[in-house]
Design goal:
single chain; alpha+beta; 3-stranded antiparallel sheet
Protein backbone atom coordinates (compact mmCIF):
# COMPACT_ATOMS: atom_id res chain seq x y z
CA UNK A 1 0.00 0.00 0.00
CA UNK A 2 1.42 3.31 -1.11
CA UNK A 3 0.39 6.33 0.96
CA UNK A 4 -0.09 9.87 -0.32
CA UNK A 5 -0.06 13.13 1.62
CA UNK A 6 -2.79 15.75 1.36
CA UNK A 7 -0.58 17.81 -0.98
CA UNK A 8 0.09 14.81 -3.24
CA UNK A 9 -3.61 13.95 -3.42
CA UNK A 10 -4.50 17.58 -4.16
CA UNK A 11 -1.99 17.69 -7.01
CA UNK A 12 -3.21 14.34 -8.39
CA UNK A 13 -6.85 15.44 -8.31
CA UNK A 14 -6.11 18.98 -9.47
CA UNK A 15 -7.69 20.64 -6.43
CA UNK A 16 -6.51 22.68 -3.44
CA UNK A 17 -5.30 21.06 -0.21
CA UNK A 18 -8.33 22.35 1.70
CA UNK A 19 -10.63 20.51 -0.72
CA UNK A 20 -8.87 17.20 0.05
CA UNK A 21 -9.13 17.88 3.78
CA UNK A 22 -12.85 18.58 3.35
CA UNK A 23 -13.35 15.36 1.38
CA UNK A 24 -11.67 13.46 4.23
CA UNK A 25 -13.68 15.27 6.90
CA UNK A 26 -16.92 14.43 5.06
CA UNK A 27 -15.82 10.77 4.66
CA UNK A 28 -15.88 10.99 0.87
CA UNK A 29 -12.18 10.13 0.73
CA UNK A 30 -11.11 7.93 3.63
CA UNK A 31 -7.67 8.39 5.20
CA UNK A 32 -5.75 5.14 5.56
CA UNK A 33 -3.47 6.48 8.30
CA UNK A 34 -2.18 9.64 9.98
CA UNK A 35 1.37 11.01 9.95
CA UNK A 36 3.29 12.08 13.07
CA UNK A 37 1.67 15.54 12.92
CA UNK A 38 -1.83 14.06 12.69
CA UNK A 39 -2.33 14.85 9.01
CA UNK A 40 -4.25 12.28 6.97
CA UNK A 41 -2.47 9.90 4.60
CA UNK A 42 -4.40 8.30 1.76
CA UNK A 43 -4.03 4.96 -0.02
CA UNK A 44 -3.00 5.65 -3.62
CA UNK A 45 -5.39 3.01 -5.02
CA UNK A 46 -8.33 4.54 -3.14
CA UNK A 47 -7.47 8.01 -4.46
CA UNK A 48 -7.30 6.70 -8.04
CA UNK A 49 -10.68 4.98 -7.63
CA UNK A 50 -12.18 8.17 -6.16
CA UNK A 51 -10.93 10.19 -9.13
CA UNK A 52 -12.53 7.77 -11.62
CA UNK A 53 -15.83 7.83 -9.72
CA UNK A 54 -15.82 11.62 -9.38
CA UNK A 55 -15.18 12.05 -13.11
CA UNK A 56 -18.07 9.72 -13.91
CA UNK A 57 -20.34 11.77 -11.66
CA UNK A 58 -19.41 15.03 -13.33
CA UNK A 59 -16.20 16.20 -11.69
CA UNK A 60 -14.47 16.71 -8.41
Amino acid sequence: MSLMTVAQVAEFLGVQDVRVERLERESLLIAADKDAAGNPLFDKDAVEKYKVLAERLGGI
